[in-house]
Amino acid sequence: MLNRIPQALCALCLVAVATVTSAADWYRFRGPDLNGISTETGWQTQWPAEGPKRLWKTSVGTGFSSVSVSHGRVYTMGNDGVRTDTVFCFDAATGAVIWKHAYPCVLDPHFYEGGPSATPTVDDDRVYSLSRKGDLFCFDAAKGAILWSVNVNKDLGDEIPTWGFAGSPLVEGDLLILNVGSMGTGLDKKTGKVVWSSPKGPSGYASPVPFDSGGQHCVAIMAEHTLEAVKPATGKSLWRFPWKTQYDVNAADPIIFDDKVFISSGYGHGAALLDISHGKPSVIWENKEFRNHIATSVLWKGFLYGVDDVSNTKYQLKCLNWKTGAMKWGESSFGKGSLMMADGKIIGLSDKGVLMIIEPSPEGFRPIASAQVLGGKCWTAPVLSNGRIYCRNSRGDLVCVDGAGKP
C-alpha cells in the first residue's frame, strides 16, 4: 500500500499539470494567429518580490527585432552598431548560440537607434529574415545554412523607405509575402523567385496580415499612404483605403475581426475602424485620441489595448471600445511600451524595461505584477513561449525570464 501512494500522487500531479498548462511556440511576429495573443496557459501571473527568475541574458546588437520561438530555438536580429547585421539562433532553455549569420548592413540611425526592425519568421524547417536595407535570407532553421538569399532593393529594384524595411515576412502556402514595394511582393518561399510584385515605390512599415472576407482569402498591407487588400496568390488589388500619415509612417499592423479592420498611426493621425463586409471599406468610426506609432494594439473581448502617442514626449497605455472608438482610460506609467496577451492577461513591457502583468478591463488600469527586467529603451514587444518570457531593448540586451514559476 505504501508503495502505491507515491505513484498515485505522481499521477495526480501529472493530471493536474496537464489540465492547467498549455505551452505554445511563437514562431512569427505577433504569434501564430498574428494577433498578439498566445494560447498558452498555466504560466504565473504572480511573482516574488524580486521578480521572475532570470534564466539567461545575452546581447544581440542594436535593433528592434522581436523574437520568434520554434522547436526549442529562439531567433532574432541585431546590428553591431556600425555596419554588420547578425541573425541569431539560440537554445531557448539556456541562451547558448546554436548558429548565427552575419552580413554587411549599415546601422542607419535616423532620429533613433537604427538596426533591424523586422522579426524572423519560422516555417517548418526554414526561417526567413529581412534587413532594413532589403537583405532577405532563407535559412535552414536548425543549422543556419543559407538556402537562398536576395536583396529586394539591389536585385529587385524595390525602393527602401526612409526608416528601412520593417515588416516581418509572412508565409502564405507556398508564398513568402513582404511589405516591399507600393502594394507588397510575393516570392516563392522555396526558391526566392518573384511570383508577383507591385510598383517599386516606398513601402509602409507594418507586417502583412492575412484575412478572409466575402468568400475570398486576402492579405492586408499597410502601404506608404494607404491600406491595401490584395489577393495573396497574385497580388491583385481588391480594394484600398487612403491613410496618409505624417512622414509616411504607417507602422502598426491592421487588426482584423468580424469583417472589420482597425488601423492606427502616430504623428497626430489617430485610428479608424472600417467595415469591409460589403467588399469595399467604409468608416464606422475615426478618432485622433488613439495613435499607435509603432507597437500594434491587442483586441480582447470588445476592447483594444495599446499605446497612444499623445505627443513626442507623452505616451499612454489606453483602453478603447472596439465598436464605438470611445476611450475608457489611459495610464502614463507604461510609456511608449508594447504588449501581448496570454490566458486573459496582458503581458506588457514599458519603455523603461518594466515587465508588467495587467488585468485587461475597461474599468481601469489594473496591474497584477511588475518587475524591472531591463534598462534602456524598450519598444519591442515581449514574447511568452513555453513558459519563458523574452524581452529586449534597443541596444540589444535580450533577457529570458521564467514565466512558469518553476522551482
Q: What would your notes on this structure say?
A:
By secondary structure, the protein is mainly β. Helices cover 4% and strands 42% of the residues. The protein has 1 helix and 33 strands. The chain has one helix at residues 4-20; strands at 37-38, 54-59, 68-70, 73-79, 84-91, 97-104, 121-123, 126-130, 135-140, 146-151, 170-172, 175-178, 185-188, 194-196, 209-213, 216-222, 226-230, 237-242, 255-257, 260-265, 270-275, 282-287, 298-300, 303-309, 315-321, 327-331, 338-342, 345-349, 354-359, 366-372, 383-385, 388-392, 397-402. The protein has a 5-stranded mixed beta sheet with strand order 1-27-28-29-30, with no helix packed on it. Strands 2-33-32-31 form a 4-stranded antiparallel beta sheet, with no helix packed on it. A hairpin with a 2-residue loop joins β11 and β12 (175-178). The longest helix is centred in the N-terminal third of the chain and has 17 residues, at 4-20. It starts with a helix and ends in a 5-residue tail after the last strand.
Features:
407 residues; mainly beta; 1 helix; 4% helix; 42% strand; disordered N terminus
Most strands sheet: 5 strands, mixed
Which structural class fits the helix and strand makeup?
mainly beta
Number of strands: 33
Overall residue-averaged pLDDT value: 94
Q: Which band does the percent of strand residues land in?
A: 35-45%
Radius of gyration: 21 Å
Q: Outline the low-pLDDT stretches.
A: 1-20
- Enumerate the strands of the largest sheet in spatial order, edge to edge or round the barrel: 1-27-28-29-30
Shape: globular
Distance between the termini: 30 Å
